[in-house]
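Handout, page 2. Input:
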Amino acid sequence: MNLNLIKCHGSGNDFLLIDEMTHGYDFTEDARQNLAITLCERKEGIGADGILFVLKSSTCDAKMRVFNADGSEASMCGNGLRCVGRYVCERLNKPSIVIETMKADLRVSSAPSIYENIPTYNVEISPVLFALDKLPMNLDRSSLINESIPEISDLLTFTALAVPNPHLISIVNTENIVSNEQKRIAETVNGPNNLFPDGVNVSFVHPLKEGAIYVRTFERGVGFTNACGTAMSASTLVSCLLQQNEFGKEIDVYNNGGKVRVIVNRKGEDLFYMELIGNATYLYQSQIEWSPSQPLEYKILSHDDFAEEEEYQLLQSHAKTVVNSTVFHSA
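Output:
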């Protein structure tokens, strides 16, 4: 079968987008998993952090399913949702839509450019869950907010939450950023361990100034990525909970892939949702020949570049300058 793909990214978190809604593809679960493993492999495949499948929805404008590079399915992906949101908005000629995800129906709308003519979208990140059994995390308490976990670190404190992907977040200094500590912790909690039976995304967060933070994430099923949308949203929420930033205000979130903005909205004592605002950039469109009977093989039939990445690189260069001067050069 011939498959049409769009290579896209949000904050350098790159994906292959496959439209099942329009093209009528009918993949089995094994086929989706095999496509992710085969196409996302960076040495011999096309290379990506995951595949975004766009499907019909009986309740929303469209449905998104996300498969990581290792073939596992993610319940949500904020950077991917921006890309899917852009695709569906343009397809339906609507400025605002609702996308069905695994655990919530989420609003997506076009937004003013985050930096010099970059296609920008605002996506809702919710629900926010602090109950450890929702991650799941095996610990003898109901929640964990800015507390130590001696099993993995004697020095750092952590906050655990699901948005709805599970996240373990630590506010750190520059010495922690440049050390090997994040890799060690992330590999521990994503390997055989008693704390996180399903693994967890691990983020180190470094405050830059009021209204700005730097986030680096080790994403379960992927490893270190340029950015993780739900991690940046969850990290911003943690910075507000710890009174480092304010609820209801735009906060600049820098990452290794660029920059986004996050607004943390408080609906009640423990009720929150975030607005994740950032790019949805198309790199190229391609057609490949692939067969479910030979899932590890494919042939590229066509490749056509878009002209959007050059503009995004201006934002990336700006973000890199900020991160290098405030995080790494001060370590």
